[in-house]
Each structure stands twice: as C-alpha cells, then as structure tokens.
C-alpha cells in the first residue's frame, strides 16, 4: 500500500489518498503512532478481520458481485482507518487478499503466497504458504487472518525489545546515543523494518494541485490553497513508515519511556519526570497517569500513622453511607472536616491521639 508522509511542527502527516483502500489523511504527534502500535490490542484486529470475512462469505453465498463486496469492505475500512496508521496496512492487505479470493481466478490465487511473503515480517520454515487451499475461501480467510495476527504480535514483541534497547542501559549498548543504537539495531538479523529507503521530494502539503505541468495554473493553485512546501517521502509499506517514524522520533530528541504501571512504551510530553502514560488499558476506566499517580501517593504514605488512621475511619464511614446509616451529605461534611483535621495533624497542630479519638478509631 503506497502512501506519503511528512513532518511539520512536531506532527506526522500520513496521506493515504493514493492508497488502494484507505482514503484520507492521518495526523498525530510524531512518535505516538509507533508507540501505540507496539501495545495495540490484537483483539481489535481479530474483530475487524471477522467482520471482513463474514462479508466475503455472505457475498459469495448470495451471489453478489466483486464490486458490491469492494464497496462493503470500503465502508468498514473507512470506519476504522483512524484507529492507528499501522492498523491501516493490515486492513488494506486483508482486504486485498479477500478480493483475490473472491475473484477465484487461478492466476490471481497463485499470487497470494507471494503477497504474503512480501507483507509478513517472518514466515517460519515449518509453514508452507503454498499448502493453503486458496480455492476454499472459508478456510483460507481463517488461516490468513491467523498469520496476520501472529505477524502483528511478532512485530509488537520486536518493537518492545528494540525500544528497551534504545532506552535501557544494557552494557553492550550503554556507550551509544539513542540514534546510534537504532543504527546498530538496523544491522541485526530480522530488523528489516529499520532499513527503509525513501524517495524524498519537495511537494505542496495539499492534494488538490493541478496534475499537468502548467506553471500559471500551479502558481494560482499554490496561492489559492496557501499550501506549505514540505519534504515528502513515499511510503511503500508498513516497514517504511515505521522506519521513518522511529528515525525522526529520535532525531527530534523525543524521550521514550516505559510506563511504570502498564509496562508499555510512550513518548514523554510535558514534565520530563513523567513516569506513566496517558493510555486507558483494557478493562480499566482511568489512564495509567491517574492510576499510577494515585498508587505512588498511597505507597508514599505507607507507615504514616496519620493517613492510616484517616483511611480506617474513611472506609468505615463510607460503608455506613453506602448502607444508609449515614446520609451522603453527612458523609461529605464529615470527610471535609476529617481532611481539615488531618492537615492540622500533619502540621503538628493536632496531636495524633486527639485525631484518632475524633475519628472514633480504636487502638
């Protein structure tokens, strides 16, 4: 899937207008796309593939046309493409495979193994792509979806390993700068995703420009669109975009850190001592930055008698309010006064024993 990318004011612009199935432009802070890709739940990909597959099988069963299937799949792609730029490559590729399976012509089916070899990061020697029965669309779609999901997981594992190498203090890489580490990694086996070669050009950052070479029309279009001229690169595949984004992330001296709550990597923005990412993880309702900060706060209070007494009384009265033995207003008024007295106790204005007695705690 060919697209174009450029960087402006710390943002990465990825133009999918020339791509086969993705029609639009993604704009996000430089580095965020690659970081999110390394931790993005593969279940999202699995769900998307299941929708796509069901539409293919329904189209075949109902005698639909290839064009009807294409329009349906375009709808799903359009609804999903803003999730993550790397997600788009998988959506587009799986769609291409489904259309080839729908076509059912032998010369088209024979091309599928070659397409898979080009896309997949690594195919182990114990799996033979030619052994897949591509005439059986129902089974082939399941097998290929499994291969793509495995590829997603392998890429994530490799990315996390490389982020750890770039940000960590491993003895063999400790003397090197982050950019030097990236270069060293690119020379290791299996790191073909770090060896992108880019065709760079000066181009306006708008697509509505005259295609034919007419200098007067071009001047008028530039003035009318107020286009910026940017250093644009051609992106031929997922590896190209990943290589381009990682290189410029390090070139911009953006700090990569591992979240102390979820363990995923993120770009530090704002405070340099930030230790938690802003992502909301699966089955959690708050971002790591909130959960982690709260956990750190209470960990810092371990062994603090004042806060131990306060928490004991707070939990007791909160339970009373929940079962109706204390009104919500009464609980609110009590908690406000308890916090005030806790502050006085912190400052030494109120003895701990008096605070404990006021709270109603037993020794």
Explain the overall architecture.
The protein has 363 residues and is α+β, with helices and mostly antiparallel strands. It has two domains: 254 residues, no CATH class; 59 residues, no CATH class. It is built from 14 helices and seven strands. It has a five-stranded antiparallel β-sheet. It has a two-stranded antiparallel sheet with strand order 6-7. α12 runs parallel beside α14. The mean pLDDT is 87.
Could you say which structural class the secondary elements and strand pairing correspond to? alpha+beta
Largest sheet data = 5 strands, antiparallel
Q: Using only CA atoms, what is the Rg?
A: 28 Å
Total helices: the number is: 14
Q: What's the short version?
A:
It is built from 14 helices and seven strands. The protein has about 375 residues and is an alpha+beta fold. It is elongated and about 85 Å long.
Q: Topology of this protein?
A:
Elements (H helix, E strand, L loop, with lengths): L2 E6 L2 E5 L9 E5 L2 H8 L2 H20 L4 H15 L4 H19 L2 H4 L2 H8 L17 H31 L10 H9 L13 E5 L10 H11 L3 E7 L2 H14 L4 E3 L6 E3 L20 H13 L4 H18 L5 H19 L5 H8 L4
Antiparallel strand pairs: 1-2, 1-5, 2-3, 4-5, 6-7
Helix pairs in contact: 2-3, 2-4, 2-7, 3-4, 4-7, 7-8, 12-13, 12-14
What are its keywords?
363 residues, alpha+beta, five-stranded antiparallel β-sheet, two-stranded antiparallel sheet, 14 helices, 9% strand, elongated
């Amino acid at each position: 899937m060919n697209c174009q990318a450029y960087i402006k004011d710390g943002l990465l612009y990825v133009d999918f207008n020339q791509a086969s199935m993705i029609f639009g432009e993604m704009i996000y802070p430089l580095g965020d796309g690659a970081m999110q890709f390394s931790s993005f739940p593969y279940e999202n990909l699995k769900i998307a593939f299941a929708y796509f597959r069901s539409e293919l099988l329904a189209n075949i069963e109902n005698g639909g046309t290839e064009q009807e299937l294409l329009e349906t799949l375009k709808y799903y792609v359009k609804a999903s493409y803003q999730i993550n730029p790397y997600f788009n490559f998988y959506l587009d590729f799986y769609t291409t495979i489904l259309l080839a399976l729908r076509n059912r012509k032998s010369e088209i089916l024979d091309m599928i193994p070659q397409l898979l070899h080009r896309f997949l990061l690594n195919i182990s020697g114990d799996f033979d792509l030619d052994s897949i029965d591509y005439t059986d669309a129902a089974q082939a779609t399941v097998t290929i979806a499994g291969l793509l999901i495995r590829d997603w997981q392998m890429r994530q594992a490799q990315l996390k390993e490389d982020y750890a190498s770039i940000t960590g203090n491993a003895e063999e890489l400790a003397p090197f700068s982050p950019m030097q580490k990236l270069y060293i990694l690119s020379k290791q086996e299996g790191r073909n995703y770090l060896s992108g070669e880019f065709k760079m050009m000066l181009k306006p950052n708008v697509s509505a420009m005259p295609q034919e070479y007419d200098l007067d029309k071009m001047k008028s279009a530039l003035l009318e669109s107020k286009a910026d001229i940017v250093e644009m690169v051609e992106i031929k595949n997922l590896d190209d975009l990943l290589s381009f984004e990682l290189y410029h992330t390090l070139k911009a001296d953006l700090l990569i850190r591992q979240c102390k709550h979820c363990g995923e990597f993120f770009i530090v923005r704002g405070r340099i001592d930030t230790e938690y990412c802003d992502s909301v993880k699966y089955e959690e309702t708050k971002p790591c930055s909130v959960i982690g900060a709260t956990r750190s706060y209470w960990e810092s209070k371990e062994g603090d008698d004042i806060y131990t007494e306060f928490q004991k009384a707070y939990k007791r009265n909160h339970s009373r309010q929940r079962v109706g033995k204390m009104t919500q207003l009464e609980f609110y008024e009590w908690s406000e006064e308890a916090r005030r007295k806790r502050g006085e106790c912190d400052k030494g204005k109120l003895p701990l024993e008096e605070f404990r007695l006021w709270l109603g705690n037993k020794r």
